[in-house]
Design brief:
Oligomer: single chain
CATH architecture: 2-Layer Sandwich
Number of domains: 1
Radius of gyration: 15 Å
Shape: globular
Helix content: 25-40%
Largest sheet: 6 strands, antiparallel
Order of helices and strands: EHEEEHEEEHHE
CATH superfamily: 7,8-Dihydro-6-hydroxymethylpterin-pyrophosphokinase HPPK
Mean pLDDT: 89
Strand content: 25-35%
Number of helices: 4
Low-confidence stretches: none
Distance between the termini: 10 Å
CATH topology: Alpha-Beta Plaits
Number of strands: 8
């Protein structure tokens, strides 16, 4: 990793079509546009949280990347990949072919109209915290002062949210070097 590269953690999700293929394709496209995929979590099957009734379950994962883009350029790259893969945004919390969320970018705290880092709702989402805990369990959130594992344990396991590690394991992501 060069001195100008940064570490970014990106959450991936899909609940339409071939969900696993969409996640795999997004990782390839991200690596082509933003940097190198270093590590990846297991894939998780998760119930839709706060979504329209009747939606199919999501597949979710988190990847660690060495990125050569600044945070806003990385956001643009994520949104462009979503668009190229066929995501259409009509309303919040709708089913989606692909969803790419920047969770963390180094230790940056960003508050702009377009981007908030760390992700403003990551501490409320088991489908984000469980895969993120595989990669950086002891990372401490600069606002909550809680580690990923602590934030994960803070969440109540409700009947409306299930997060299950898939037996099929990992996304394809060949670590650098």
């Amino acid at each position: 990793m060069s001195t100008r590269d940064a570490y970014a953690y990106i959450a991936l999700g899909s609940n339409l079509g071939d969900r696993r293929d969409h996640l795999e394709r997004a990782v390839v496209l991200l690596a082509g546009e933003a940097g190198t995929c270093l590590r990846r979590s297991h894939v998780y099957d998760t119930s839709p949280l706060g979504c329209d009734p009747g939606q199919d379950n999501y597949l979710n994962a988190v990847i660690e990347m060495a990125v050569c883009l600044d945070p806003l350029d990385l956001l643009d790259a994520c949104m462009n990949i979503e668009h190229r893969m066929g995501r259409v945004r009509h309303r919040p919390n709708e089913a989606r072919l692909i969803d790419l969320d920047i969770l963390l970018y180094d230790d940056c705290v960003v508050d702009t109209p377009r981007l908030t880092l760390p992700h403003p709702r990551m501490h409320l989402r088991r489908f984000v915290l469980e895969p993120l805990a595989e990669l950086i369990p002891d990372w401490c959130h600069p606002r909550t002062r809680r580690t990923v594992l602590q934030m994960q344990s803070d969440l109540c396991t409700g009947a409306n949210e299930t997060v299950t590690r898939c037996a099929s394991g990992w996304l394809t992501c060949t670590p650098a070097g």
